[in-house]
Structure formats: C-alpha cells, structure tokens
Design goal:
By secondary structure, the protein is an alpha/beta fold. The protein contains 11 helices and 12 strands. The protein is globular. Residues 305-311 have low confidence and may be disordered.
C-alpha cells in the first residue's frame, strides 16, 4: 500500500496561512494564487483525513489539531532549510542569502553606517533585513524566518548562541535645563511620575528598569512611546524623562533638540549588543565570521574607552 506524504510546499502554505490569517495574504506571501493555495491545503486535509482549518467568509480559524500540525510543519521546514544551509556553508563563506533581524532600538542608529561596509567587505552576501521587536525577532528566529538577529542582551530568546559586539551605555534624557548636576545621574534622582518608556516588546525598557532596580518606574510610567525618536520629542517638549542608549546619541538622535542626556550611574547601566542565532544552525562558523566583521565596523564607528568583554 502506497502512503502519500505531505509535500514541503503544502506545509509551507499551511504555515503561511497561520502566520497571515488570510488566504489571500498567505497566497501573496507564497507567490501563488489564492485558488492554488486553497486547493493545496484541501489536498493536505484529504491526505491526512482531518480538518486543519475552519473556513468562513470572515475568519480563518485553525483547529486544535491544525495548530499542532502547523507547529510541526514549522520545524520540518526549518530542518529542510538547515539541510540546504549545511551544504552551502561548506562552500564560500558569507555567500548567498542571509536573513538578519534587527531590533528598532539598534536598526536606525547602526545600519546606515554598517551596511555599506558589509557590502564592500562581502560583495557576494545578499543581506535581507527585517526590523522586529525583541520578542517578534526571537519568534521569527526559531520559526526559521530569520537566520540571525542583532539583539540587546540580556533577553530570554530560547536556545541560542551569541557573540557580544558592543556594551551600549544607558543615558537618562531630561528636558533642557532640568538635568541634575554632576557627570552621571543617580538612580534615586529619577522621578517615576515623569517617566516615559517604550511600549511592551522593546527590550530597552526592561534593560533600563533592571539597571535602576526600581519596579515602581514601570508602574508609574506616564506614557508608552512607539520609538526612541518619539520619546525624544516628548522629552524635548517638557513632558517627562526617558532612557536613551549611547548608540542613539552618537548617531545624532538629540541633534536639533534641547534635551540634556547624562549617563545612568549603575553597575548594570548598559545593554550588550550581540549577534545571536539558533544553537542548531549549521552556519555557526559564518555567524562567528560575521560577528567579527561587525565588531570591527562598530569599533570604527563608535570608538570606546572600554572594549567589549568577550566570554
């Protein structure tokens, strides 16, 4: 008796449908027509003898079994991609496609200067960028949608390996004329009733609050911003104070404002910018090579008195 197995294409369509929650959007993401994707999924359901997706005019809802099979499909697709990566990694390093995730509190400050250097040093590398919050980037990494991520640690991102690139100091930003005296800001000098923080999902908020070790700062935050640029504008208009990483200040985020920023005095007043990847990835040697190139580029762009401790 011949047993027909699901095809990789059918599994890719299933995963795309769950990700987008819409047949048309899933079809567009897979570069096929909606009818092609729908027919392939019906064939998959017939093959397995189960219903994976409940279809209505307005809602696409996965059954409980459909969710479990989609989870398994993600792992199968990732393993298949890693098989191809394993073969490619034996050839020319940093050659071909690489999908890099970057969090929003790094991307606008590092990428404009970093990318031209990477194109010069690795002309055969096709780098595809995806800007995501820390949580979304880690999820995409483990789903196999990203190969590696530029992330700020510490952050719980699952079973990953990492290479540190830069210790990025945290500053406290005040409206013009309101910064306390001294070269650094004491934790106790921060008024929790005027605190402006990034929305949930941005690890910078957690790093800053952890450095201060004051849980009430989170509870009393008066506003949640969508980006560092938004927070800087609010501070410049006298609405409160916020945390800014040195990387953003050196990239000119305070240019044209009256904002005063001073370093936070804390034993943990920094975030560690790192390149991370799945521990199971066969491209570790390439990522180590990429991390070395990034560390050199960052050192040239952002000279530091203290080198990053590599452990």
């Amino acid at each position: 008796m011949t047993v027909h197995q699901p095809t990789l294409k059918q599994l890719q369509y299933l995963v795309a449908l769950r990700e987008h929650g819409h047949f048309g959007k899933a079809a567009d993401a897979c570069f096929v027509t909606q009818s092609t994707l729908s027919a392939a999924l019906r064939e998959l359901e017939t093959l397995l003898g189960v219903t994976l997706v409940e279809r209505t005019r307005r809602v696409v809802r996965f059954t409980a079994l459909g969710e479990k099979i989609a989870d398994k499909a993600v792992r199968v697709i990732r393993e298949t991609e890693e098989l191809a990566e394993l073969a490619r990694a034996q050839g020319k390093p940093l050659h071909g496609e690489l999908r890099l995730g970057v969090i929003p509190t790094i991307a606008p400050f590092l990428l404009p200067a970093m990318l031209p250097r990477l194109r010069t040093e690795w002309p055969d590398l096709k780098l595809y960028l995806r800007e995501e919050t820390s949580q979304a980037a880690c999820e995409a990494l483990h789903r196999g949608q990203l190969d590696c991520v530029l992330l700020a640690l510490p952050y719980a991102c699952g079973d990953v390996d990492s290479v540190p690139l830069l210790d990025d100091r945290l500053f406290v930003a005040f409206p013009g004329g309101e910064a306390p005296s001294g070269t650094a800001v004491e934790v106790d000098a921060i008024d929790e009733k005027r605190m402006l923080l990034l929305e949930d999902g941005h690890c910078l908020k957690d790093h800053a609050l952890s450095a201060c070790n004051r849980p009430e700062l989170r509870a009393h935050a008066t506003m949640m911003g969508t980006s560092l640029h938004t927070l800087v504008q609010m501070v410049d208009n006298g609405l409160g104070v916020t945390f800014i990483p040195a990387m953003a200040i050196e990239a000119g985020i305070l240019d044209g404002t009256r904002v005063d920023a001073k370093p936070l005095r804390s034993d943990h007043g920094f975030r560690r910018i790192s390149l991370i990847w799945r521990r199971s990835s066969p491209r570790e040697a390439e990522f180590q090579m990429l991390a070395g190139a990034l560390r050199q580029i960052i050192a040239d762009l952002i000279p530091r008195d203290q080198p990053v401790a590599v452990s």
